[in-house]
Write a structure and sequence with these properties.
Distance between the termini: 17 Å
Structural class: alpha+beta
Radius of gyration: 16 Å
Helix content: 55-70%
Strand content: 5-15%
Strand order of the largest sheet: 1-2-3
Length: 145
């Protein structure tokens, strides 16, 4: 499940970013649910919330280190639970999704805009959801399960 979750998220992330770059000009926005969810094309050269803009090499190195750490962690833990496998897989898929963007162009395509939070993408969502699932797994007893 680790690699299925990672590759599934990576594929969805890449495809949605291609669709956004192809069909939605940068800085334009289209309401999906007016006032709730908009598709807003943003090119982010920074990290989360646009912090540390234009640090491409730093972000690529961090993403490569995170990728290696997630793969090693999955290998060392040999997770028996689907929850942990999916949690780590989503984090890997999200990391790789943003790494693909950064390596190719030095920026990440963001497009999910709920108007109360900075614009983000599916890779970001996978990293966060994977982190929440990992925290839940740990709170439920972690390694003992």
């Amino acid at each position: 499940m680790f690699y299925v979750a990672a590759l599934g998220l990576l594929a969805l992330d890449v495809l949605t970013k291609i669709a956004v770059r192809t069909h939605l000009p940068v800085s334009s926005s289209v309401p999906v649910i007016n006032g709730v969810l908009h598709l807003t094309h943003v090119q982010n050269t920074g990290a989360v919330f646009g912090l540390l803009p234009d640090r491409r090499v730093l972000f690529v190195v961090v993403a490569l280190a995170a990728t290696a750490a997630l793969v090693m962690l999955n290998h060392q833990l040999r997770p028996r639970t689907t929850l942990l496998q999916v949690a780590l897989g989503l984090q890997l898929g999200g990391t790789l999704g943003n790494l693909v963007d950064r390596a190719a162009s030095g920026r990440v395509t963001d497009f999910l805009d709920f108007r109360v939070w900075p614009v983000f993408n599916l890779a970001d969502s996978g990293i966060v959801v994977g982190g929440v699932l990992l925290a839940w797994w740990l709170l439920r007893g972690g390694a003992g399960r």
